[in-house]
Amino acid sequence: MSLLIVCGALLLAAGESMTPLPLPGGENGIGFDDLRFSPALGRLLVPAGRSGRLDLVDPKTRAIVQVKGFSSSRDGGRGHSQGTTSADASSLRIVARVKLSGSPDYVRWIAPMREVWVSEPGSKTIETLRLTEKSPPKLEPAGNIEVADGPESLEIDVPRHRAYTNTWHDTTLGIDLGSRAIAARWANGCKGARGLAVDPARGFAFVGCTEGKAVVLDVAHEGKMLGSAKAGEGVDIIAFSASLSHLYVPGGKAGNMTVLGVGNRGELTTLGTVATANDAHCVAADANGNAYVCDPGKGRLLIFQDRYR
Fold it and tell me: Are 11 and 272 spatial neighbours (Cβ–Cβ below 8 Å)?
């Protein structure tokens, strides 16, 4: 593996640090957005946009299993109108369908409550649905949460009984899962807040700023900003590896990803920057030290094996 030192930072040569993984039907591009790793399934969940499929990637073998039956589009490119772009799966088949009140962005499953929360920025709401225990199960409306100037991104912190989301600008919100009330508002220092990731064990919430920055908030206490670090321009979706305590921050406009180390007090240290692709704006981390970055133009994933320690 060759290394380049640029302005004191470690830069990994793109061809030697990222392994491409083409997705079936992605030759003309895929409108990626939200990627997730499911510990329960041991698989990376890849909502494959216009293909109309949910791809599940085995981190060890890189074999791909497809769940079909979602909305599809003949057009390529990125966008929330390009089919399914967010998912949370507990089985490998579609078990229930429901018509949403607005155009969806993020979808999150809250297991203890048997609820699905869906952010709908166009209507400035988070729609909540309850999965019944009937056979077959059904998704029933459980109420809406109004989020002015949002919601952007959505993460769940079960130990604190909270959900987190951002406004489009400079605020991160803590929402009580039971009452659905906005319980906290924290300034995050962003000009344009976008991605979210959570470290429940230490009570940290990580926020990605589109202008090229990541910040750490202490959500276990008063939401104080604990750390901040620069990243490439065009930050959108970010990911945290609990096993390595590393934060992955792709810059879609910059065409790179910054890897940050997270200290026990929430301080951020730049470990290096790796070249990715144009509009590579989303990432997920598995439990084996790998980060997966989306490459929308070529309809594939770029796999980064994290060797930083």
Answer: yes
| Phi, psi dihedral angles at 122 (to 5 degrees) | -60, -35
Cα separation values, 256 from 61, 235, 251, 262, Å: 26, 10, 5, 19
For residue 64, which of 26, 14, 29 has the smallest C-alpha distance?
26
* CB atoms closer than 10 angstroms to residue 33: 22
Mean pLDDT of 149-153: 98
DSSP 51-112: T-EEEEE-TTT--EEEEE-S---S--SS-TTSSB-----SSSS-------SS----EEEEGG
Q: Report yes or no: 166 and 153 within 8 Å, Cβ to Cβ.
A: yes
Q: Are 125 and 148 in contact (CB under 8 A)?
A: no
H-helix or E-strand spanning residue 308: none
- Contact in structure between 210 and 194 (CB atoms under 8 Å): yes
Which two three-digit tokens encode residue 135?
């056979």
11 strand-pairing partners? 4, 273
Q: Which residues of 55-93 are buried (b: 16+ CB within 10 A; e: fewer)?
A: bbbebeeeebebbeebebeeebbbbbebbbbbbbbeeee
Q: What angle do CA 138, 115, 162 make, to 5 degrees?
A: 175
Element (H, E) at 179: none
Q: What is the pTM of this model?
A: 0.90
pLDDT mean across residues, the chain? 89
- Return the closest-CA partner of residue 54 out of 75, 38, 76: 38
